[in-house]
Amino acid sequence: MFSFEFLFSLLCTPYQDICVIIPEWRLESDDSCEVSFKDACVYESKQTVNGKVPSENGVWERRTTLPAPMFSRNDFSVWGFLKKCIGMELSKITMPIVFNEPLSFLQRITEYMEHTYLIHKACTLSDSIERMQLVAAFAISAVASQWDRTGKPFNPLLGETFELTRDEEGYRMISEQVSHHPPISAFYSESLNQDFSFHGSIYPKLKFWGKSVEAEPKGTMTLELSKHREAYTWTNPMCCVHNVILGKLWIEQYGTVEIVNHSTGDKCVLNFKPCGMFGKELHRVEGHIQDKSKKKHQVIYGKWTECVYSIEPKVYEANKKAEKKSGGDSKKHKQEQSTGGDDADEMPDVQETVTMIPGSTLLWRVAPRPPNSTQMYNFTNFAMTLNELEPGMIGVIAPTDCRLRPDIRAMENGDIDTASREKERLEEKQRAARRERAKDEEEWSTRWFQQGKNPYTGASDWIYKGGYFDRRYPHLPDIY
């Protein structure tokens, strides 16, 4: 009955245009800010008991759990709050902390990078169609982490940042909250050997319609592969969260996603299928890859919650015809139609897992979640690590980094009362700073990104200015 909070987790889902480039391959601080740094230092010193320890050879192992399990939401009246929000844009509403998970939206954006190996592999391939297959798998995999994530990430404060460097996976990433109204988050990631860059800006628009919440994707994703001098762009599918008041929460992604290779003219058209009346298509993705002459080369099929395959079009069509000829599940569907309930928002039974068609190639399979995931906000293994402070981080990462937010840190440690007080304090501090700027007729200035146009689509975008990893942080705002 508390499923509404999940719809807010969509704020951290990919709803923007993304461009990916694949390279060649084959502060003055006040007392409150000081407290947040002290808390972070204390937390760092406790890492031997909070889910991770250094291994015997001195190599730091990332944690596999959070310091404390999530709290119960059973005593909170969802409807009492939500009835005030019908028809409103949710990104403009201050949410009670009961809806949150202990991550910032900037950290949730970083979950795009969980399956970076797909990009690295694409960089090694000489055939553009084969590269497109892996780029398509990467785009699909980017939405997989939101399944069953029932908490809303914290809204980033204006000027908030998050960096992530993964040497073993060969990339680093920086994101910044560049606008508060409307809320816009910009990010830029690159491979450590200059093989690719992946960037975008996200402006998710959510609306509550009584029984469901609709998320409209805004923004463009861009992937650039340097060696191949290729740039791919796409936007993300629509998302709908059902049963936000009563019943079992469930989510579906639907709509057409077009991935365009601006260098070759190749295109991948993906159809995230709506659930339908009986749930047969729940979570399913189907599409094809075509060249600039519109000749189909490969079919992509699978589920965004499970796995994705590719296969030759002729083989795929022959298999579909054989299924249709044999009658498929028509009898089962007739039974479902005759016994179906009256509640259109009832979650359909999840159909059988994806059946691999002989001759298919597996492109991607979702990693299993840790055994304690349900007690840890349904986090993936990757999400578990995003807010941890590794040895030596403090003094290196920017003082605006999400890891230093006292409200998120308190929530992660299981101290909900402190988390709620800190959240209110930070939001009021942000409002006071905005009033001061208005009084002085001063415009907010972003640090690492500037507004411009996407070089491939011409759409409005936020472009990385560079310089973050030089580790010079002059005149950064005191936001904590």
From TrEMBL:
Could you tell me the Gene Ontology terms of the biological process aspect for this record?
lipid transport
Q: Which InterPro entries match?
A: OSBP_sf (IPR037239), Oxysterol-bd (IPR000648), Oxysterol-bd_CS (IPR018494)
Indicate whether Membrane appears among the record's keywords: no
Q: Where is the composition biased (Basic and acidic residues)?
A: 321-330, 415-440
Q: Which PROSITE patterns match?
A: OSBP
Member of which family?
Belongs to the OSBP family.
Q: Which GO terms describe its cellular component?
A: cytosol; perinuclear endoplasmic reticulum; plasma membrane
Region described as Disordered: 321-348, 415-443
* Name this polypeptide is given: Oxysterol-binding protein
Sorted alphabetically, which keywords does the UniProt record give?
A: Lipid transport, Lipid-binding, Transport
Give the superkingdom in one word.
Eukaryota
Which organism was this protein described from? Cyprinus carpio
One function term, GO molecular function aspect: cholesterol binding
